[in-house]
# Entry
Amino acid sequence: MTDPDQTSDIVIGIDLGTTNSLAAVVGKEGPRILHDADGRALIPSVVSFLDGGARVVGSKARAMSVTNPRRTIHSVKRLMGRGLSDVAAELPRLAYEVTTDGATDLARVSVDGRLYTPQEISAMVLTEVKQVAEAALGRTVEKAVITVPAYFDDAQRQATRDAARIAGLTALRIVNEPTAAALAYGLDTSREGTVVVYDLGGGTFDVSVLKITQGVYKVASTSGDTHLGGDDFDNAIIDRILELVAAKTGYDLKVHPQALQQIRLSAESMKVELSAGETSTLEIELDAGEPFRFTLTRAEFEDLIRARLDETIACCKAALADAKISTGDVDEVVLVGGSTRIPLVRRMVEETFGRTPHTELDPDRVVALGAAIQASVLAGGNRDLLLLDVIPLSLGIETVGGAFAKLVTRNSTVPCRAKEMFSTSVDDQTAIDINVFQGERELVRDCRKLGAFKLRGFPPMPAGLPRVEVTFLVDADGVLTVTAKEQRSGAEASIDVVPSHGLTRDEVKGIIRESIAKAREDFAHRELVELRNKAHNLVVGTKRVLAMPEMPFTDAQRDDLHSCIAELERLSHGDDAKALSKACDAFGEKTQALADEAIGAAIKAELNKELGRLPS
Ligand code: AMP
# Structure
């Protein structure tokens, strides 16, 4: 393999984390992490704004979080591509101000009266990562592969791409974190099978099921909890200490912020110590009296955190069920995230899957190493890998009556393309709105709107005659382009969908759960909408035929058709699907018989038109 350190087109891998970020590159010796001048690899994903317009990024910024909390921005990854209403639950955990720009709901960070997009803050972190990489490599870096959680949606991936661009980096590929972890372990072309990536960090838990076939990676399912991690284990120890101190001395340490801060730091050290040893002891100086001594054994610590770890195992099982496999089908398990150093985590994962998980690589670095491997592939290294992901929620457009026509179904592998033909619902339309939605329900009012555009400039034609081909293209990064083309006139329009809202994985889970719970009700609604459309098409087609002077209908036939039309229109306004269905069938038979009798093949086709109709 060539040494990318020396090649002209260097591409680095970046793990852009919620808490820390780091960069790696593949050199002659294989993938390696890049360090700063002080030998540090982890760059805290934190930006602190100082007086006079200056700012610091990384460990210097993190050190400011206590003294400059309102102007020290951490965890901005949680805000990327999200609306303020999406992140409402996060806000109490953030000491800085999050607002919107007033025009949209998109989250903005407010510092000293200036608004920053999460992309801008993220770009400041990426600039720091770029500088560390450039100093380590002794050359400029302009291209990168950046990792994101597997559940990141289109808006969140776009936002990550934008952040890179602001930082002067081209993101050649946005790669899923679990896929990068599997790549780092070399679970690639040489093996086929199913890999579970269990990622337990400081604040979040993610589990992903990856399927590898002939070097193609596919994220088959994901699950997790955006608020479960090492911080909770620290809190469990803190609560225990507070309880014991209160019982022994009557002190309520909660009202002593400084003591509490000291205990927080000690609790994390105790936790880390208990990953290596069997006991850990803490001594706290209280204002008066004896120092308070507290010893925690590993077994006691395990009892404190077991319930939370059970939740992670339940998520693993949910992910397996979603991927329609059982633990016996899993070939490899990979551990990612600092909290997977806890022995109980390893034991529980091993018991669940019946195999020893991979722990050979540093769990804090494995994602960056994998990103570097993908980067070297893109830079022209000799590995032959493809990375594929799946679409978390179905994508489609609104059709007449508010029905949701799904073009790309959930769990389709990207890149993918889907095409469907539609038509108009009203005579002489020269423009139509294409409304793009995401969701699992049958009506668009229960789905999430991603964007809209207008296809205009085609000549007026009777309803049902225009042939509008709608194409959905989802590229390898999960970015969606929707194109609509009226085939008779060649009129065309398209958009890249940059949704104004992102979705959390919990929301995706909720949407799927709801679609299952409401399936019966949705089906009934959908059936009614479809019947109304069918009735509408029958009415429009028949009225058109009735208006043709050359039609050899008798007066009695005309009267009969007019009264049938009136009946269909009446039933279309009601909710009785059964009666409407019967009336449509009867009307269909009647018009069919008339068509057979008196109308040429072209008109028959007109009456039978089956294209989905778009809203007027
Ligand atoms: P990450 O977000 O992946 O960097 O993970 C950070 C979390 O891992 C923090 O909660 C750390 O306290 C925790 N952590 C790091 N090392 C250890 C260890 N040896 N034992 C237990 N937890 C650890």
